Amino acid sequence: MNNLAKVAVRLVSTTSLRNAFGGKRDFTRTLWHMSKNLDGSQVSGGILNATKPSISCSCGCGGSKHMHTKGERELVEFLTEEILAERKAQKNKTVPTNLDGFAVKLDGAEIELTKQGEKEKIVINFNVNHTVDTEEEPEINPSADKPDLGEMRSKPQFEVDIVRGNTTLSFTCSFFEGTPEEGEYNDIFGIDEMTIYQGEWNEKVYAVAGDVLDGYLYDLLMNLLEEKGISNEFVEKLSDLATAYEHSLYIGLLENVSKFTTGK
To answer: Which family does it belong to (predicted)?
Structure first.
């Protein structure tokens, strides 16, 4: 089954589009940094001219091989501080190889969880890109240099495939936003879409949206997922895994941008 193609086709039609436009990272570069020189003077005309490198260049290049613009120097200086701050805030520095009996496989921004049983195989796929948001709406002080935006959590849309022989029962699931109101179920995730097919998935396969399913059928399907190990507790751990992995990828991205800028 081509999971990447399936996710790409379904993404537009599912409710988890909110993740793609959700909370943005707390970049600390302010208008003050953009309009000032390092010594506090104003940048004239907004044009940055290349200057001869200095042996004391703070970007770490040694000042002998590369000619850096002012913007490049400021970028590297910011990235150096940001990387240190992100590493300090990193709660989990390693990603587990097993999650409640599911083997964990990492591939770029993709994560695959697999559990093999006697009669069936359960495969969970998700992508951590554009999945980070804050747990709660924070109170931001506009005068603060770096306001606290709350804990950043990755809550990706995920595919659950229950495979028996040549037949796959597939669910597309996503996290609910906010906390449930009184009288509502306490589920932290729901079914966006369900389908069943033979062999490999393709665009001709029929699928039904979760919000048009009969209410009792929907509850039975949620019970089925729980029996297969996809419970609220497990999905919370899935979010922990995604959060730790996404954070490590983000730090790696910052480091690669820094190396690219310095020419290393």
So the answer is: Belongs to the MAM33 family.
3-27+95-243, what's its fold? Mitochondrial Matrix Protein; Chain A (3.10.280)
- Interatomic CA distance for residues 185 and 181, integer angstroms: 8
This model's pTM is above 0.90: no
Tell me the pLDDT tens digit for each residue of 152-166: 899 999 999 999 999
